[in-house]
User: Fold these one by one.
Assistant:
Number 1:
Amino acid sequence: MAKISNSSRIINALAKYDIHTFRDVIFHLPRRYLDMSYTDEFKMNTNEKVTLKLKVTSAPVLIKPQKVAIIRFTAVSELGANYKIVAYNQRYILNAVKVGNIITVYGTINLRFLELTVIKLFPRVLSTEEQFSPLYSLPSEVGNHEFIKIVQKALKMESVTSRVPRPLADKNGLISLNDALKRVHKPRDLNDVFDGLRALKYEEGLDYFIKLLLIKRANSELINSKKTIVDLKAANEFVKRLPFKLTKDQLTAVREIGYDMNKETLMYRLLQGDVGSGKTVVSFVALYINYLRGAQGVLLAPTESLAKQHYETLLTFFKDFGLRIELLIGALAPSVKTKLKEDIQQGEVDIIVGTHALFSEDVLYPKLELVVIDEQHKFGVNQRNMLLNKGEKADLLLLSATPIPRTLANVIYGDMDISTIESFPHTGRQVNTIITSSAPKNVIPLIEKTLAEGRQVYIIAPKISFGDKTNVLTLYERFSARYPHLVGVLHGQLTSEEKDAALLNFKSGVTPILVSTTVVEVGIDVKSAGLMIIYEPHSFGLSSLHQLRGRIGRDGKSATLCLVSDEEDNYKLEEFAREDNGFKIAELDLTLRGPGELTGEKQSGMPGFMYINVIKDLKLITKIKEDALEVINNPTNPHYFPLLKLINESLTKE
Ligand code: ADP
Ligand code: MG
């Protein structure tokens, strides 16, 4: 295979972002675009960013050669307006700019004084390509311009074929996938980006909806006429013995689930509710009902830490009920695992909690009748399907902490049944969100106060680090230096034992400060954590931030979320700080996202979409869904057959 670069520095750095081949390169789309196309002088507004072509009329002078170097000169536009140009700390301008030169200035305009503050200055006219350029999210070792060169090469080397059937592509006026990628990477303007993205979105959506509809269809045809009917009053025994009273919404969800489970047709229900709304315990009631009918149930979690936490909670809540509950994860010793698998196969285990190890081929469940999937958006459609293949007669309950409005949910999840928990348990929990700059004086007092209260502190490292200062290990070093022996660290590269130890020490307060990546985003429940500090919050989607915020204040006392941002524009974060309803935040996240701004992360909140913005693209996805239906309703159509075959094959693979 051709190497993507001759530099081992670049190769190693990109590998961290899972970019190994030219194919990976072309699917690493720009995060956003820098638009420096020349501005119409008649259409400028004060404080807006503009790009002007100017002729220099006075030589640049250094006004204040102290801390900040201020450079000033004047230049005239094509329309004859005379602009005062100001630049801060850009000393190269002194040599690069000469009277009579034609230059390009990209900057902020003040119309009252005709003053233009330089962001970037070029001593020439910009080519079309330079005027509209892609910005990629990259590891700090790789420059944007370096990556652009690799992309150019990759676009020449690689060719991809679209899976969209020709008639559908024609009907929807889609450009080819190759052209789409070219336009997204090398656009002349935003319209190119839109055309390119439209094709990519369609491709993604068609695949998603065909899978969804196929699974849904297969599911609704399945019935289990041998289900044992459970007297739901018996389930009440469990509810009564919980350490708290269920909320009204939780009780409604329990009832809906109970009815589903007593029906011949299989349950296919989504339970959605904000972080901390108490979905887990509702799924436990379902597991109990399932136990009462003499069947096995599994609870699938996206990470081992979360699986373990559920396992422990299950043991506590089911203490006096005589069920056998086991944990099945990849990290178990082989001998233990083998024994456990045998016991499962003998039907001796009632509830099995685990990660995707649950559906490895050699685990067989003789009487699996309930599958609960926590944080379901972390799993692909295929993975969900895999587990269902383990129990053809299993009811399915999906839990989702990125709630979306019901109308939207209906489009995205097919016509799945939905239970929603809107109200929170009244625990008095209150989280105050603040935004500060990275100066230690803003952060340290918060930490001291929280430690003095005997509560714990999360410090979260960014998803994408724009330098090494905020890398999880650097942050760990920095805080350990200040608080020797009080800091633990948690990230994906640790072994399972190391992760356990870190969480345990944090929970118990041995190391009351935990520096972590977003592994804690999903479901971790440490009651007395009172402060969370997030570095480079801009690198997270708002829904992710909200998930993180859900980790603190769980002891019912007030807690603080501190977003450390040195950026100028914190509008999104401010909106986020004001809002604490997960439904609204999910919407806000997508609404505030600019055109051509992609998440670049698969689990950005909405089910598995990289390109599609479920709010802004609602019209397009409704259209795609119709087309998907047309495809599965005409499986013998020669245009559709090959795609259906591919998708059917992929549904049985992980
Ligand atoms: P999520 O919906 O995010 O999965 P959890 O199920 O983890 O939320 O619940 C958050 C916390 O609230 C847990 O510690 C849980 O035990 C507790 N909890 C759940 N329901 C109630 C309730 N009705 N009253 C009080 N506490 C509750
Ligand atoms: Mg949860």
Note: The domain at 431-580 is CATH 3.40.50.300 (Rossmann fold).
Number 2:
Amino acid sequence: MRTVIKNGTVVTAIDTYAGDVWIENDKIVAITAPGASTGMTADKVIDAAGKLVMPGGIDAHTHLDMPFGGTTSSDDFETGTIAAAHGGTTTLVDFAIQTKGGSLRQAVDTWHGKAEGKSAIDYGFHTIITDVNPGTLEEMGGLVKEGITSFKLFMAYPGVLYVDDGQIFRAMQRARDLGGLICMHAENGIALDVLIEQALARGETAPKYHSLSRPQIAEAEGTHRALALAEMAGAPVYIVHLSAPRALEKVVEARDRGLPAFAETCPQYLFCSLDDLAREGFEGAKYVCTPPLRPREMQADIWRGLKTNDLQVVSTDHCPFCMKGQKDLGRESFAKIPNGMPGVETRMYLMWDGGVRAGHISPNRFVEITSTAPAKIFGMFPQKGTIAPGSDADILVWDPDKEHVLSVETLHMRVDYSPFEGRVVRGAPTHVLSRGEVVVEQGKFASKKGRGKFLRRSTFGL
Ligand code: URP
Ligand code: ZN
Ligand code: ZN
């Protein structure tokens, strides 16, 4: 099967040029000058005149079908990956959680069971290690050989996901030896639990106190500690869901010293704020995620970090919970609101409309932070994350002016609200290709669940 995407403008992380993209089965095989006589014929022609041809989005941080906060995130691998495809994301990396007393093997087998036969796009796994012990340290080696080359550790959520500094340090040393990458949830959870207890004792139970009891200094301290431990271990480290300017300062300082330190932020930290958490009644629960949303004036620093490459990636931390039956577990106490927001479908729209169109980033930088950089950091490049001969044909035909309304009515995530309800964005995919197959065309899902393949990722190579 040969497909050609003709007359479009190819945009990669570094180039913008007119080119026809030729696909054979699941791979890109050639890029030719528009109208050049190639001698090739195509079974399918997609006319991309007036459109951009970009690599499919890679979301390196999702939580599908994840037990958390006394409930389970509301999207599974079927609904979450179909929603992702609608929004122009063609690969995701989800987190397999080690249950207390369980092995990493069990975690990964459980996650394979959740994804197989359901995922509509390609997917990989990180493993969340909740108990670093000789057994799990040993297991990390086996997982790296299976292409699960990154591991998340939590400084937050004492008694649930938290691991102490000794465990973190040992896991970092092991990751260094294996070519693995530690992803860190960097907040001082021990101190935060004290602040939360004190806030609740004062009767501060509304959603906004989720943010007010988690000051940015707790994230800055965690980030500094993660970077220092990684430096001591001689290991690379990736700070997940960075939300706070003072945490960013720590990353900048480490990178300026040449350390292999990386960080992502998420759209909610660029487009939502403490004002949303303070919405009337219980509305603020829609915006409870961790680290929390910050005061609006802090967003400028996060944008600056993205511009200057102090932040390398925008992923979603997609972790949806419905208001009815899930978020409302916390009506009496913000501490019981399941932490997480939906986002896997809206990332590309928001980063184009609010990032490129708003003048914060160029189209090339958009490609870099949503696709190329996560592919490189997480061992998927050049199979994923670019448009080049030999790469998987994960491609967006993107209409930079197409209007789309972000609403629970128009979006496909299995959640009963949208944090961006009614926001009109410009820029949307007309065609989404995953390994050469058109999976979404003009806003309609055109494929089937279960076609997504597990991705064996390479060791850390930057
Ligand atoms: O609120 C969040 N971020 N929920 C998902 C778990 C995590 O910490 O990433
Ligand atoms: Zn986290
Ligand atoms: Zn997360």
Note: Residues 56-377 form a domain with the TIM Barrel fold (CATH 3.20.20.140).
